[in-house]
Design goal:
The chain is mainly α. The protein is built from 13 helices and 4 strands. The chain has a two-stranded antiparallel sheet with strand order 1-2.
């Protein structure tokens, strides 16, 4: 009777993982590609280190989701896993999963730390937040993740039709450091600490004399990082505990009923953990009304002109970019309009008081800057 119940539980677990992996893959691929599209096309995010972290995380998430989907898709209807019989697949999948995991978790921590630095009241800390530092940290995380994945490739073995780590030292490393610390408490602590500190900085950001566009961007990115970290903590903690228990308890597959229960619980927890790689775009949408407006802007970013709040074209204006707010439209546009009489008069008509009539176009021959220079460049410097 117990054996029959255990087999039913294993079938339920297999069916559950097959369907959830497909759903998570679909929403994850769509969400991560939209993240990449928005953060690389919207001008306010260009050359922003936090946006670079989001893009890198999305790329890593796509790789992770594809690997998870292939793992579940290759399992036959009879529950036969080729990873338990093909050594290459056993080693490859077990190497790629921690590699992508460490990269994604590192990027989450880096983005939280960056927001703390970029919103800090102290200039010496703020100047540490640079795109160059972000690139160095991302490269370092990738290299370290690759080096860290090498032992997985070495110590993974197939014994008794089971792909696992049988080396006692590596098993202890997984049980007492990798799952509870490296992919559990450590990134959770770092990301939580610095996102809370960044949120505190943003609440005091009004004291700093910075452009309103930069202030709004800092608030938006900090809110997005904070909600991302909260979901990360909620989804990661149970998985780290469950994986640590699995390696410590070492449940014998021959003891079918406890083994089946552990597989079912692990499958459910893993599905929620895998949401880490799929839902960042959707939580950004839910947490930021400004981000929801920005989603539409890459589709109109190449259309120059003046727009209403409903994105209806009011007038054509040379290189006057559509953004969320009027001041952002000005600051994210190029200098071309101020050197063109027709364009400048159009802008004056819509955005300046009627008594400001002496503003004339600038002479393109008397400037050291290219006409394609974005106005925000001057304000930011």
């Amino acid at each position: 009777m117990a054996s029959s119940t255990a087999i039913d539980i294993l079938r339920i677990s297999q069916t559950y993982t097959q369907y959830t992996s497909r759903i998570i893959l679909i929403i994850g691929i769509i969400g991560n590609f939209l993240n990449i599209f928005v953060f690389t096309n919207f001008k306010a995010f260009r050359n922003n280190q936090c946006a670079l972290y989001f893009v890198t995380e999305s790329i890593s998430n796509i790789c992770q989701l594809i690997i998870y989907f292939v793992i579940y898709a290759l399992v036959t209807s009879d529950g036969i896993d080729p990873g338990n019989s093909i050594l290459f697949w056993c080693k490859f999948r077990a190497t790629m999963i921690p590699l992508c995991t460490i990269i994604s978790f590192s990027i989450i921590c880096f983005s939280a730390c960056d927001q703390y630095l970029s919103t800090n009241l102290h200039f010496n800390l703020r100047k540490l937040s640079t795109i160059k530092l972000a690139q160095i940290l991302i490269f370092t995380a990738i290299v370290i993740s690759i080096l860290h994945a090498i032992p997985f490739c070495i110590f993974l073995e197939i014994r008794a039709s089971r792909c696992s780590v049988f080396n006692p030292i590596m098993s202890q490393y997984l049980s007492f450091f990798y799952y509870p610390i490296l992919s559990g408490l450590l990134p959770i602590f770092i990301a939580s600490l610095f996102s809370i500190l960044a949120y505190r900085n943003v609440r005091r950001i009004v004291r700093r004399q910075i452009p309103i566009v930069r202030r709004r961007l800092d608030r938006q990115l900090t809110a997005m990082v904070l909600i991302r970290v909260i979901t990360f903590v909620i989804l990661t903690s149970p998985y780290a505990i469950q994986r640590m228990y699995t390696y410590i308890a070492k449940i014998d597959p021959s003891n079918l009923f406890p083994y089946a229960i552990n597989i079912l619980v692990g499958g459910i927890i893993s599905s929620f953990f895998n949401l880490n790689y799929a839902i960042s775009f959707y939580i950004f949408m839910a947490s930021s009304s400004r981000f929801r407006r920005q989603i539409n802007l890459p589709f109109t970013d190449d259309t120059v002109g003046l727009y209403t709040s409903s994105m209806s074209l009011m007038a054509n204006a040379m290189e006057f970019t559509a953004e969320c707010y009027v001041v952002e439209s000005l600051l994210q546009s190029t200098l071309e309009c101020v050197f063109n009489s027709s364009c400048l008069s159009t802008v004056m008509e819509f955005f300046l008081d009627t008594y400001l009539t002496n503003i004339k176009r600038l002479d393109a021959n008397r400037t050291q800057y290219p006409l394609q220079t974005i106005i925000f460049t001057f304000v930011n410097n």
